[in-house]
Design goal:
This protein has about 80 residues and is α+β, with helices and mostly antiparallel strands. About 30% of the residues lie in helices and about 30% in strands. It starts with 6 loop residues before the first strand and ends with a strand.
């Protein structure tokens, strides 16, 4: 991971579309260029959040999996 995380969003226990909704709300509070780490256990988010990020102009930096937790890193546009 070659970036520093500015904020973390714990969306574990939430199912689609709530991780995307909460991500959008969190990014509204952030400055351009800041990095958000989203923690989720919803496997659908691995597909949905990267697509949502591309559609909204935000940048997917990476996806990591640790046991049941999926970590998705987005940079705010």
């Amino acid at each position: 991971m070659g970036y520093s995380v500015d904020r973390q969003l714990d969306a574990r226990g939430l199912s689609c579309p709530m991780p995307s909704v909460k991500t959008a709300l969190e990014l509204e509070q952030m400055d351009s260029g800041q990095v958000l780490e989203i923690l989720t256990d919803d496997p659908v988010s691995k597909k949905d959040l990267p697509v949502w990020a591309e559609e909204t102009g935000n940048k997917l930096l990476g996806i990591e999996e640790e046991e049941s937790t999926i970590k998705i890193y987005l940079e705010k546009a």
